[in-house]
Amino acid sequence: MSDATPEVLGRDERRLAELGYKQSLNRAWSGFSNFAISFTIISVLAGCFTTYGQAWNNGGPIAITWGWPIISAFILIVALSMSELVSKYPTAGAIYWWSSEMGGRVWGWFTGWFNMIGLIGVVASVDYACATFLNAVLGLYKVDFIFNFGDDAHILRETFFLFAVILVLHALINIFQTQLLALFNNVSVWVHVIGVAVIVAILAFVPDTHQSFDFVFTKRINNSGFSGGMFWFYILPLGFLLTQYTITGFDASAHISEETKDAEQAAARGVWRSVFYSAVIGWIVLLAITFAATDVKAINEGAGSSLAIFDSALTPAAAKAVVLISTIGQFFCGMACLTSASRMFYAFSRDRAVPGNRLWTRLTQKRVPSYAVMMVALLSLLITLPALHGDENAFPFAFFAVVSITVIGLYIAYVIPIFLRWRMGDKFQPASWTLGRKYKWMNAVAVGEVAIITVVFCLPFTPAAVPWNDGFKWEAFNYAPLTVGLVLIGAWLGWILWAKKHWPGHVREVDPFGEGAEIRPDVPTTPPEPEPGSAPA
């Protein structure tokens, strides 16, 4: 740092300086806290409950009991591939930074915008789902304040109002209680673990009867409206959205790497471990829910939702407990989502890729990108506005469109740097956490899986969403491909008209080898040598 005042740098700070950035954010997160934020964002108390109906209606129990572990295995391969990259490049920008470094500015530019729309989508979808469950909780307790939550009138307006309130609360916590964010995420891990245990126990012991193993592991259901002849190649894959959406957002461990101690190892472990443990715990809770799904008629009438299962299988007190625990878990999840998204927005702005970047990179005295937090919350609100409208049963098709936006945006962003690392082959020099030679097949599998799900989740979820059908309805339209397409077109125009000539790519804030850079003598200035095979077998 030739023009900066001398400062003491540890290994984490030195590595960050080698990547071109000064330690602006507060590096106070432990390895467990890093794992906790991704585990919280994945949140089996959120995705498993809120998108259960997607799998029930598109495939039925087999989409849940078999789809979950199979798709989870593919997602774990994606996560392991990303772990190797975050160990090499532990920056808040993370995914787009990796792409820029390995493929050049144009790759980084498009990766960044896909990652951004995906992160905004995950904030929107999680907080809207939390509002849906909170609405159900208030309805169970017959709350009548501002709205009468105890009746069936104005459900979509009530839900959107609660959604806005939750977004504001999460923004305030992220801005003014940042010193507690790591603690909140640590607590959230135990809320999820203990909460799942309580819910599984309730679902196991409260219902008078349970479904058979034959039903849970072999039953097929098609409530999509599409022909049964399309079941295996179209309808069932739509049901996999449950798994693909729930186990996402684990890039948070990478975005928080600049705030994590021993980031080269801790952030890498945070990525893959959050996926692995969520997959195991999520399958347990999904099995418990499906075994309790005895009143199939009532569940179908309730759009296949988990709420319909709780209402039909449990006593009122037990149902209240399950929904309340899930709502609390979802609240923690949304809070962590906003943290992750705001850090990416901050980092992308720091590299001057976002209009108004000077505003989004302003930090408070507690070193929080407050304007980035507020902007992400506002954008999340705006893309969810179509959820104010639904069908005659107050079913918000727009919610599942936002879910698709999340999955498509994030997984495209995940797989671009994985593809670039695969393309580099042995030219890529890994850091201390490495896949070894396994990268060759793991990277290829990750790229293939994401290519398939990107196509699947752009498809209509119901015949009413097919534009050339007589019964086409705009409120049923899956606007995920439209939104993602607009982002792609916008990013392409931005690149052609401005970024190609003016965007610098990585903006180096510091020169780690300049005069005045003082390194702690008791901390190594270079990371340990790579250990091939350090990833789990």
What does this structure look like?
This protein has helices at 11-18, 31-42, 47-50, 52-57, 61-65, 67-88, 95-103, 105-140, 155-176, 178-205, 213-218, 231-239, 241-246, 252-255, 263-291, 296-301, 306-313, 316-350, 357-360, 370-383, 397-424, 439-456, 480-502; strands at 7-9, 58-59, 144-145, 147-148, 221-222, 517-519. Helix content is 64%, strand content 3%. It starts with 6 loop residues before the first strand and ends in an 18-residue tail after the last strand. Helix 6 packs across helix 21 (397-424), helix 7 (95-103) packs antiparallel against helix 8 (105-140) and helix 10 runs parallel beside helix 15. It is an all-alpha fold and 537 residues long. It contains 23 helices and 6 strands. The strands form 3 sheets. The chain has a two-stranded parallel ribbon.
Task: Give the neighbour order of strands across the main sheet.
Answer: 1-6
User: How many extended strands?
Assistant: 6
| Molecular shape | globular
Oligomer: single chain
Order of helix and strand elements from N to C terminus:
EHHHHEHHHHEEHHHEHHHHHHHHHHHHE
Q: Spans with pLDDT under 50 lasting ≥5 residues?
A: 1-9, 513-537
Question: Nearest-angstrom radius of gyration?
Answer: 23 Å
| Distance between the first and last residues' Cα | 41 Å
Could you outline the blueprint of secondary structure elements for this entry?
Elements: E1 7-9, H1 11-18, H2 31-42, H3 47-50, H4 52-57, E2 58-59, H5 61-65, H6 67-88, H7 95-103, H8 105-140, E3 144-145, E4 147-148, H9 155-176, H10 178-205, H11 213-218, E5 221-222, H12 231-239, H13 241-246, H14 252-255, H15 263-291, H16 296-301, H17 306-313, H18 316-350, H19 357-360, H20 370-383, H21 397-424, H22 439-456, H23 480-502, E6 517-519
Parallel strand pairs: 1-6
Antiparallel strand pairs: 2-5, 3-4
Helix pairs in contact: 2-10, 2-15, 2-18, 6-15, 6-21, 6-22, 7-8, 7-21, 8-9, 8-18, 8-20, 8-21, 8-23, 9-18, 9-20, 10-15, 10-18, 17-18, 18-20, 21-22, 21-23
